[in-house]
Amino acid sequence: MANQRAQIMMSPPEIDTFLTQQRSSTVATTGPRGQVHLVAMWYSWHEGHVWIETKAGSQKAVNLRRDPRMSFLAETGHTYDQLRGVALEGAGVVLEDEDVVWDVCVRIFERYQAPYTEDLRPLVELLARNRVVVRLDADRARTWDHRKLGLDPVALGGSTAAFIEG
Questions:
Q1: What does the H/E/C string look like for the chain?
Q2: pTM for the whole thing?
Q3: Nearest C-alpha neighbor of 69 from the set 108, 27, 97
Q4: What are 16-34's pLDDT values in tens digits?
Q5: Which of 26, 133, 148, 155 has the smallest CB count inside 10 Å?
Q6: CB 2 within 8 A of CB 9
């Protein structure tokens, strides 16, 4: 039997495409009592790094200032044959430089809202107010793309199938 783990891994270009195309993610930091603090986040994938913006006093920013360990997950697929994902682990670097915060806020705005124009400056300024950004310096990546297994299509089923759009 072939090593399925190696078969489903994504190449760096596949990771880049996947993280460019996905919309939602889950970010994990370590809370004050050592518990995992999980949050859903929008993100930017830029120059080989995940970037998020958050309030300067958010729990994740507080956690990262104390302990920089951070994990990130983007995944998709509703049936086994379609599961794909990228999990990154590394150090979350909190950056407060106003120019960096602005650039990341513009990239996230464009990713989820609309192309940036000067007419939208007040809205993006509101988004950037009292914010910091976090750059994930990943030192480990785990990836999977079950489409590479060549499985026959799996029908969407189970008790949650009725809630899936599409």
A1: CCCHHHHHCCCHHHHHHHHHHCCCEEEEEECCCCCEEEEEECCEEECCEEEEEEECCCHHHHHHHHCCEEEEEEEECCCHHHCEEEEEEEEEEEECCHHHHHHHHHHHHHHHCCCCCHHHHHHHHHHHCCEEEEEEEEEEEEEEEHHHHCCCCCCCCCCCHHHCCC
A2: 0.92
A3: 27
A4: 999 999 999 999 999 999 9
A5: 155
A6: no
